[in-house]
């Protein structure tokens, strides 16, 4: 009991201190002695359109340690570099003491945001969806981890009141009754407004038309925000340059529900609120700019291909290269957006850069900082080294990469198998993918799968790991295709072969995690395909030989005249 009271009092004490600290800071800002969060974001170039008035947003972020969120729909198997911009706003928010929440749209991805699309997205097989969701979940998680390092390096010491979160709208949208959505978000949404949106108008004019599901997408996004607003006090939404309409829809929905909810608990207009109280509850939002290069190209594409954050889709080498190639005219702007370096330091850096632009000092800094955020310190350093040794002689034009000679992307996961470092820290890529033949996974106890996947050095080590509950399998056995809140991990007990199969998603994908960080995404193909592709895996030779012997024996049948071969008794 005493313990409990102590904890509670400690908590209250900390809450109070955090409040006082915020009030102190807010006085400083108002007195003009400290820069406001919004001005900082504006100066660095993060703010495109604010929904509502700028002064209100500035006041809100000054007076209150608000919660802020940004959503990503896992419609592909990786985020691309464009996703990084609104995420940078979240990262800044976190290290400046706000509650920053990255939302993975596991549920919304099933409809797909129609903004900017001329056609409906194809429905994805549930296994593809799960794999995409898992991958992006791991990406977001790893990047949050890297941000901790970045924050420390720039002198932002963790404080108790800082909060970061990674959540998934599967958690509430899967349980949301249609009637509830219609009664609250539906009644608060005006058809005129929705029909007036460009996406809807354009699609209505086109032959393709628009499905009701896509039409209602903004309601789902609005519901997310309402849910987080009412349960986590998330009051601000930041989104990509195309998200303005969805943010407006969210604000309208929240305001409508706040004043018209059938449950008095949520009603906020029973007694007129004081202006200040009302103000501190207002939902607000803004978008980040659409990035283009000085030559007018959309940022994030190289030779027409997207630049991915997944190191297996765009290698760290290529990601570094992308930033290294950035035009001098753009690099300062991007340094402000994609690094945590103070602006005066960036000025100095640019001065140095301009002394001899051919050295690409600014581009190297930018590339390295982005890699630190996306892939972590170690990979950033290694990649920088790789580049510096490759392109020793500075020249005004960057040498063309020898076509694919240095780094295949994705690297051949199977060939690299044996080189996988046994110790994994937060700096490792969020996952490795590899391919295994069916007979090394199906009907195999999980301890063996660990061995075949190169996650342990021997079968017995695999066995020990399982006994110590050190390995986990992704998703639920017999799952129906919906992963609940977060991505599920089940500690694997000593499964028989048959049980492993329950965790295989869509017949061809298995997620395995060892310890906290080491995740393998195992793609399962037929033995024949595996063979054809010339792939290797621990235990495959033996299995193949075993199969060969079996095939031959099956073909020949036992020779009745042949003496059975007996193993020599061990001496
Ligand atoms: N619609 C957003 C993603 C998103 C999903 C759910 C949300 O609650 C918020 C944002 C996009 O396409 O970029």
Automatic annotation (TrEMBL):
Determine if Ligase is one of this entry's keywords: yes
Which InterPro entries has this protein been placed in?
aa-tRNA-synth_Ic, Rossmann-like_a/b/a_fold, S4_RNA-bd_sf, Tyr-tRNA-ligase, Tyr-tRNA-ligase_bac-type, TyrRSs_C
Source superkingdom: Eukaryota
Database matches in PANTHER family: TYROSINE--TRNA LIGASE, MITOCHONDRIAL, TYROSYL-TRNA SYNTHETASE
What protein name applies here? Answer: Tyrosine--tRNA ligase
Q: Which UniProt keywords apply?
A: Aminoacyl-tRNA synthetase, ATP-binding, Ligase, Nucleotide-binding, Protein biosynthesis
Cite the source lineage. Eukaryota, Fungi, Dikarya, Ascomycota, Pezizomycotina
User: Which residue intervals make up region (Disordered)?
Assistant: 383-412, 539-571
Where are the compositionally biased (Basic and acidic residues) regions? Answer: 541-571
Where is each Tyrosyl-tRNA synthetase C-terminal domain found?
429-541
Q: A Pfam family in this protein?
A: tRNA-synt_1b
Organism expressing this protein natively: Lepraria finkii
- Family the UniProt entry places it in: Belongs to the class-I aminoacyl-tRNA synthetase family.
Question: Reaction(s) catalyzed by this protein?
Answer: tRNA(Tyr) + L-tyrosine + ATP = L-tyrosyl-tRNA(Tyr) + AMP + diphosphate + H(+)
EC number, UniProt record: 6.1.1.1
Q: Looking at the keywords, is ATP-binding present?
A: yes
Q: What class of enzyme is it?
A: ligase
